[in-house]
Amino acid sequence: MINELILLCLVAFAAGFIDAIVGGGGLLQTPATLLILPHYPVATLLGTTKIPSLAGTTLAAFKYSKHVKFNFKVLAICAIMAFIAALYGAFLVSRIDNAVIKPVILVVLIMVALYTYFNKQFGIHQEKNHAVKKQVFMAALFGLVIGFYDGLIGPGTGSFLILVFIATLGFDFVGASAHAKIVNMATNLAAIIYFSYSGHILYQYALPMALFNVFGAYFGTRLALLKGNKFVRVFFLIVVFGTILRFAYDILFK
Fold first, then answer.
1. What's the pTM?
2. Is 164 within 8 Å of 146 (Cβ atoms)?
3. Ranges in the chain, pLDDT < 50
């Protein structure tokens, strides 16, 4: 158990670091946990990873809150919708074949990577010409969609949220990352409520992992705020590319 715990804590640190900057820490933490603890049910391992994810995301959100002005109307509606949808997604996690969803996600991710790479100004400056009503509507819609995805599958949720806050709501990368953390807190909390109720959390692993995820999030947030939008943009592309490889591997070789 000790060796497993050490490996999981190291993974949690790296995941917290990545997640604090551009999201996507679950792409590392979730498969690593499945690999290190193969003798447990998948639902139990998914539930276990939600606690360190919530801890790191909360710390990152707190750090961002000191430097970023939040749009509370957009944030509230997105977080509430995401929370509700994540509860339902967690409920369905063992009832829907992820193989049906992953090819669609792979295509979307490739389009995201290409658009971000070729559009050099994407997410560098905040757009001011987005109507409030449209922002609220889009926040509610994508909160439902991404919240459901996080409860059902999970990895990459932070990156998808950042994309939505930039592409449809007009935020810059740092602002989008800050807002994404709050919404991600809501989806993680919803999943934890369901998984804890159904007995799918291994607290002996989850709590130490949470501590290391917080450490990683602390350093990741400091780096993102120090380096600014251009650095976060590059990091975002790297994580999206890694996500593409991960989904492609799952689809083609599993």
1. 0.77
2. yes
3. 122-125
